[in-house]
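hey so u asked for the seq, here:
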Amino acid sequence: RLLFIDTAFQTLKLDAEDSSGRQHILTVKLKSKHPFEAPDCSADLPIPLLLNWTPQTSLEQLYGQFLLVLESLTRFWDTLDEIDRKTWILEPEKPCRSDTMRRIAIGSNVSIKVEVDPRHPEMLPDCCLLGAEHVVTPLRNKLNTNMHLWFLNCPCDLKHLCTPVFAQSFSAECGICYSISLWKIPSLIRCVTTLAVAKLSSRSVCTSGCVGFPLADRALMSFLEIVLTAASQLL
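ran it, structure tokens below
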């Protein structure tokens, strides 16, 4: 259980595992008046970590309380893990266990921001559609119409609400649109501007739908050089 202890024996880091096999770390900082003063305890959680302490409380009992907190959040983390597996997550790029929000790609330049309540993960999450109004409006109407399809036993059943894009079928858009982070762009950029480089066209146009403006050759060449360099480093 003990991962770390400092030379002053004041700071301890304890390893813990929830029922789904996820690893967690409890950091305990003992006060100078220990055990008469409660230690500072912290962990990567979506809720405040509140542990009971008395002068008679042992570290083992404190650790046991932490395990109970982890179990109370198991359903919440199961929900977010399932969302991460089945959808294309735009934000956060590197989720941590305290994150309650996910921004999910729905289509070209459209996404949905989902906020899951860690105490009630089975309930319909707060949803906010992001994108051009003419695209978002029909999706918002569909979301409002299909809210009754939300099942308590399937908390990430978003596909019945507004049809999000699943990770397996998602193809990266033109990097010039800035709609997806560079690290998610594959080694072969699927963009009409790539072909335009060979032709050295001064009227190359991004046709992915979110820009559509002519691009000057110099700017186009500079941009693609940066993108392709970044993409090649991922190979």
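DSSP finds six helices and ten strands in the chain. The beta strands are 2-5, 11-17, 23-29, 40-42, 89-91, 101-107, 110-115, 126-130, 204-205, 214-215.
lmk if thats what u needed
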